[in-house]
Design goal:
The chain is 42% helix and 12% strand. The protein is α+β, with helices and mostly antiparallel strands. The chain starts with 13 loop residues before the first helix and ends in an 18-residue tail after the last helix.
Length: 172
């Protein structure tokens, strides 16, 4: 059975895909946001979120005599296997993981930008990290009916208080 085997193939071989996702992840960690195609951004999201989760777990583990525990080193090595840029991972494990400490998941956000102007007209997107204190937007509760719109528009507007002095005074 093929349950849970779906992934975006991106039109390349497995080796090329893993190298591409590794490079995209390293760029995202380093810069905080990158512009890429929508398909690559959607493929990058689960990839980078698993790496961030490993960094959070490693940071939560206690240190032994001022050094990282064996489990923390193991998690770092697992992350290095995925993202092959050691400087980007050092940045993530030492500094950036603190930004996600209070967030239970959903570390990235994707904005659709529209088609690429020159070339293949591929759908472009911006993928960025979400800060821990960012609440995002509130989802609407569905389409508003005509009655609700009319009731909202018919509500009386606040009246500004009148002033005691006349607007134009003449000097005598």
């Amino acid at each position: 059975m093929r349950h849970g085997k779906h992934h975006a193939s991106l039109g390349v071989t497995k080796e090329h895909r893993s190298a591409m996702l590794s490079n995209l992840a390293a760029s995202l960690i380093t810069h905080g946001r990158i512009e890429t195609t929508l398909t690559k951004a959607k493929a990058l999201r689960p990839f980078i979120e698993k790496v961030i989760t490993k960094a959070k777990k490693a940071a939560a583990l206690p240190k032994v005599n001022g050094k990282l525990s064996a489990s923390a080193i193991h998690l770092r090595r697992l992350a290095i296997r995925d993202v092959r840029d050691e400087t980007a991972l050092t940045l993530l494990f030492n500094e950036k993981q603190a930004e996600f400490a209070g967030r239970p998941g959903g570390y990235t956000r994707i904005y659709k930008l529209g088609p690429r102007r020159i070339g293949d007209a591929a759908e472009m997107a911006l993928i960025e990290f979400v800060k821990a204190d960012d609440q995002g937007y509130k989802k609407s509760k569905g389409r508003k009916t005509a009655k609700a719109k009319k009731a909202k528009d018919a509500a009386p507007a606040e009246v500004a208080p009148a002033t005691d002095t006349p607007a134009a005074e003449t000097k005598a």
